[in-house]
Amino acid sequence: xxxxxxxxxSLLERLGVPxxxxxxxxxxxxxxxxxxxxxxxxxHTADDVSRMVGEAxxxxxxxxxxxxxxxxxxxxxLGEELRAEKEALGALVSLEAGKIxxxxxxxxxxxxxxxxxxxxxxRQLHGLTIASERPGHRMMESWHPLGVVGVxxxxxxxxxxxxxxxxxxxxxxxxxxxxxxxxxxxTALACQALFERAARRFGAQAPAGLSCVAIGLRDIxxxxxxxxxxxxxxxxxxxxxxxEVGPRVAQRFGRCLLELGGNNAVVVTPSADLDLAVxxxxxxxxxxxxxxxxxxxxxxxHESVRExxxxxxxxxxxxxxxxxxxxxxxxxxxxIDRAAFEAMQSALGAAAQEGGKVHGGERALAEAxxxxxxxxxxxxxxxxxxxxxxHETFAPILYVMxxxxxxxxxxxxxxxxxxxxxxxxxxDLRETEQFLSAAGSxxxxxxxxxxxxxxxxxxxxxxxxxxxxxxxSGSDAWRNYMRRATNTINYSRSLPLAQGVRFxx
Length: 505
Ligand code: UN1
Prior knowledge:
This protein has 505 residues and is of the alpha/beta class.
């Protein structure tokens, strides 16, 4: 296989990021494939961020008056650029985030899908008309562009998470300042270059500053978080990050959209089709090397099928091809870095201390790539849902717990601090519907007979409790990016007051 740096540079050049932009800075960007250096990127300062937010604010003031369907046209053009460069951008995601190729391409497809969705939405940013209690009056609500949107994204979806926010924000009439993960800034530069291509084709009506990318570490994120001109801060990452960001944005009465940790479970009931369950769990638990916020981390299985299911999963796990994510046969690529590997090992150690029986989890391919961190995905049979299980470790660890009564399975399912995604496998309508009911799964996403990961963009994406409560992507998530005005219009010749109040002199 070509050296990651060589391949990355030629992809970036193709995507419109010049080689000189990748040199001479303090931020070392590495490929998780072999740990090799991809770039020494220049970084921005807090002052640069302040300037960017100012430019974005000016762009917003012009952009908000461009008709929404016209704004949709810009996103349609971005979708075209993404279609044209799907292979290249997907390969870049693989190189920088370590995803297998099909998942890198899937990520770009998700970006194309949200662009299509946003284009349609640009003619559907509608409010209600509401019956007024007063004669000759009409009430309605209008949705207006909000302002500058700050986006902070994580390494594991280095492009798609930005696009969910960006495509909606742009059709909603906002401008966006993006701080990508410092682990995956090159993908961000490529996205920006593709957007600039679309903007050039769109013409002068697209103001400069509509899309800004701020490269750097924590201080750059903080500069966006604390800037009062940023009307909405959409942040994806750890619960620890959200706990800091949320109150800081609230302090200045900004809006927050948080997508934080998940601790997603699959419940397998006695009536489940085990062939489906094995396939669904395998992809959701071991896919993306366990590094999706929607990854299945817990398996809650009825005692009557537990032994069979665990045996089948273990067999499937042993066959998982681990290796260079660019090789067509690979299903499990590397962890993002050494810290991820160490967190995984310490979770496995703690689980063993708590009585867990660990299968797999060991480092792989260390001799071939001493600076990369490949692991065999782990299955850990637990005596109960311990403290380690209740904590999200961003690695491929599947904890298995048994249950006897379905009510107990639901209680165990909900007894974690996070609430993102969930699934039940079963063909007993009473159980699967109970899982989806108000007294069932407490997550933002609840599925039947499919795994917890791989949501489509048409639905609202996000979760409850420590997951942060935000909803992105489909359904009515666009409302996050707009402000609502309630309008009352009097077309009569008198002035009746609401609630029958009299105030005549
Ligand atoms: C994430 O891991 O941050 O549902 C997002 C999924 C993808 C998005 C995951 N559509 O797994």
